[in-house]
Amino acid sequence: MFYNILFNKQKPKWFIFVFDLFISFFSILLAFQLRFNFDVPERFHNNMLYVSAIAVAVRAIIFLLTKSFAGIIRYTGTKDSLRVMLSVFLGSLVFSVVNLVSYIWFDGVHIIPFSIIIIDFITCSFVLVLYRVVVKITYLEMNNPSSQKQDVVIFGAGEAGVIAKRSIDRDAGSKYRVLGFVDDDPKKVGKKIEDVKIYAGHDLNEILKTHRIAHLILSVQKIMPDRKREIIESCLKYNTKVLNVPPVTNWINGELSFKQIKKINIDDLLEREPIKLDEIKVRQDISGKVVLVTGAAGSIGSEIARQLAGFKSEKLILLDQAESHLFYLELELSQKYPDCDIAFLVGDIRNASKMKELYDKYHPSYVYHVAAYKHVPLMERNPDQAVQTNIMGTKIMADLAVQYQVQKFVMVSTDKAVNPTNVMGATKRIAEMYVRYLNASGPTLFITTRFGNVLGSNGSVITLFKKQIEKGEPLTITHPEVTRYFMTIPEACQLVLEAGAMGKGGEIFLFDMGVSVKIVDLAKKMIKLSGLTLGKDIQIVFTGLRPGEKLYEELLCMTENAAPTYHPRIMIAKDNAVIAEETKTDIENLMALAFENSTMEIVRTLKKIAPEFISQNSIYEQLDNHQS
């Protein structure tokens, strides 16, 4: 019955209002008792009742004006408590003013002794706030007993960590209890925040081992990637889910909600030290120039476009044949960079007349050539399309760059062009060779950038795994030993811009891809991060290497060696391979073959131009056997 009286959702506001007035009446009587040590003189008896009635009347008016009774008691927060205390203070202020007036008009008579006013303010505000807090705690405990709560640990005992704790405490639907804070700052270790102990960072493994920690919440806004990865790895070891407090800028109305604390994703495990881009050099190169980006609607091209839009080029031309993706990019950039002059063009780099029209109209100074077909199995089955786009399309754009005296032509290549084992890699390798050949034929500086897999790019293994996990499908991996290099889209694009700025022409720039990652390990970590159990909730299925697929990727061809640059994350491949005039003729013949649907002849010619192209797990292996 008591529970129903206090916690009935339909309880009217007047009930709280009357209860507050009852406490106010009790408070003023208690103030008199405390003032006279529970022995009120007889001369004050009548005055006490008279004063109490006036006090309750004044409090009633103040409560009605401030609406201090309107809040839902079981959800009382700091603002509700402050409103109650303000109401009590205003009432006490009215008493004080009345006292002063009576003192002046009635020859030094105080209607309410000032000591009574002070005591009443303290007792009234204390009891009004206390009963609200007690009701809230009782409600939370009855609806969400501590014994049923799961323990969480907050990493970071700073301001964001405290706010994260409070967001958990005030969330009535939360099933969690903060066991402690963990922090790497030795000055904080051993202290308490809101009665919660702060543990040392090196004690994290012991805490996870000895307690059943449901979640670790990362509240540190700026944490080194290596330390972040170490924390996540420890949590995965003990089946503790990792949540991340979003940046302050993403908080709703400046306040953090528990629902905003999101799961860590696999990108955080592969994250590395942030790249320091030489913005001054890149800005000097780009500023005032007309810049063309091909393949601008793709994952890499669109990020390059975003970064270029911030460098104030004279005009930015974004070209792609994927109209829908280009449309959404236009919406995004037009809103984010309203002052940037951007042309969004739908077109195919294989259309020579259309591309000539583009060059003739805009006369770009810089070209970032990103457009390409990149999916290995598809291109293995469609070598004619790979040749038409990756070789012929590149040749058209590069030849026009020479004709229109483009200052720099930056081509985005792939690590699959290194000692290629598939058609896609071979076509990109030949495209690299051709633009390097053109570098000596005119004023245009041709620069090639080469890197591996990009996190979150269209068709990447990470994106595939995420979709399979969401659908509850088995994670498909080609081989248990397959490894790949990974980098994020922003860092890949930053390195492309940096390489383009430092390039003097003819270089193939390699990007530091970090450590090669075993795909099966990546899959297992993604399963754990999703809160699933391998073998119980989800399976891993090995499907066998796809046509043309390697077990591991390389960054240097057999004819290359690497030299450092001033940027620690960029190297130059010293390529000794050269294109002869007869090779140029072979490329012309290859492009003609691409329109004759002569698959074997196309691949045979690819192998002739790029002799390091040795097929693996492919029908084209017979061509290698024949050559040998």
What is the SS-derived class? alpha/beta
**What count of structural domains?**
3
- Separation, N- and C-terminal Cα atoms: 92 Å
**CATH topology (level 3) name of the largest domain:** Rossmann fold
Strand order of the largest sheet: 10-9-8-11-12-13-18-22-21
Radius of gyration: 36 Å
Taking pLDDT < 50 over at least 5 consecutive residues as the criterion, the unreliable ranges are: none
What is the CATH class name of the largest domain?
A: Alpha Beta
Dominant shape: elongated
Largest sheet, in brief, is:
9 strands, mixed
How many DSSP E strands?
A: 22
In DSSP terms, counting alpha (H) and pi (I) runs of 4 or more, how many helices? 22
Helix content: 40-55%
According to CATH, the homologous superfamily of the largest domain is NAD(P)-binding Rossmann-like Domain
Q: How confident overall, as mean pLDDT?
A: 83
Percentage of β-strand residues = 15-25%
> Mind telling me which CATH architecture of the largest domain this is?
3-Layer(aba) Sandwich
Write the layout of secondary structure elements.
Layout: H1 2-7, H2 13-35, H3 45-66, H4 78-105, H5 114-143, E1 150-155, H6 159-170, E2 176-183, E3 192-193, E4 196-200, H7 204-210, E5 213-218, H8 225-237, E6 241-244, E7 262-263, H9 266-270, H10 279-286, E8 290-294, H11 299-309, E9 315-320, H12 323-336, E10 342-346, H13 352-362, E11 366-369, H14 376-381, H15 383-403, E12 408-412, H16 423-438, E13 445-450, E14 453-455, H17 461-471, E15 475-477, E16 483-484, E17 486-488, H18 489-502, E18 508-511, E19 517-518, H19 519-529, E20 540-542, E21 560-564, E22 570-575, H20 581-593, H21 599-609, H22 621-627
Parallel strand pairs: 1-2, 1-5, 2-4, 5-6, 8-9, 8-11, 9-10, 11-12, 12-13, 13-18, 14-17, 15-20
Antiparallel strand pairs: 3-4, 6-7, 16-19, 18-22, 21-22
Helix pairs in contact: 2-3, 2-5, 3-4, 4-5, 10-18, 11-18, 13-15, 15-16, 15-20, 16-21, 20-21
